[in-house]
Write a structure and sequence with these properties.
With 107 residues, the chain is an alpha+beta fold. It is built from five helices and three strands. Strands 1-2-3 form a three-stranded antiparallel β-sheet, with no helix packed on it. β1 and β2 form a beta hairpin. It is extended.
């Protein structure tokens, strides 16, 4: 799918080339988001339909060190709520070990 997307959007055929060097060249100058930017986003973004899902995925991804496939396989059954504490059990992952983490809502 990545090859088709690059071919379609950039008009670059990478079927016979090495993908990793291409991606390294394209990522020159890329800077990851810093923690203070993430904290500002979590504090300032509204909890409406536009940002709530992004905020939940961000918190679960960072707090639980969840992989992309674990986030996509996460269901409501994996989350247990007790007052202001969420207990999240990660679904079967690449390591085949179930992990659990908690998220506490502080007032």
């Amino acid at each position: 799918m990545l090859k088709a997307t690059i071919n379609n959007n950039e008009n670059i055929d990478i079927t016979r080339s090495n993908l990793v060097p291409f991606l390294k060249k394209k990522s020159v100058g890329y800077r990851a988001k810093s923690s203070h930017k993430l904290q500002a986003f979590l504090a300032e973004a509204d909890d409406d339909n536009n940002y709530l899902l992004i905020k939940v995925a961000l918190i679960f991804g960072i707090s639980g060190a969840m992989r992309r496939d674990e986030l996509t396989r996460l269901t409501v059954d994996n989350i247990e709520e007790r007052s202001s504490i969420l207990t999240v059990k990660t679904p079967d992952s690449k390591t085949h070990l179930e992990r659990t983490f908690t998220s506490i809502h502080l007032e």
